[in-house]
Amino acid sequence: MTEENTNRNKYKKLALSFLFDAIGMVSFIIPFIGEFSDIVWAPMAGLIMIKMYKGATGKIAGLVAVFEELIPGLDFVPTFTLTWIYEFVIKGNKASEKIIEIKS
Question: I need a surface site. Which of 48, 56, 58, 83 has the fewest CB within 10 A?
């Protein structure tokens, strides 16, 4: 996979993260009725998170997404976007440092 495709996929995941976080926040806007929609959205968000981010990151983020959606008042937390930041900014920087160390 070329670097251009990798960047395109990375930013596609960021756009999807914004979309899924927005969907999760919609229930925060509609009092009472919105909280019931979280019962449906919470497991879906967890499964989507596991599919988007492989390995331990996806599994842990999937669990966090489920609990974040089920606990009333936490819908404002952008779980998908925070996971993207972890995967591509925080963890990504560490991965590139390891590549440099191996080549030296």
Answer: 56
pLDDT digits (tens, 9 = 90+) for 36-62: 788 889 999 999 999 999 899 999 999
Cα 3 from Cα 45, distance rounded (Å):
29
pLDDT digits (tens, 9 = 90+) for 82-104: 999 999 999 884 444 444 344 54
> What is the sign, positive or negative, of the torsion defined by CA atoms of 34, 39, 41, 42?
positive
Alpha-carbon distance 69 to 47, whole Å?
A: 13
Closest-CA residue to 84 (of 24, 8, 10, 25):
10
- pTM, entire model: 0.79
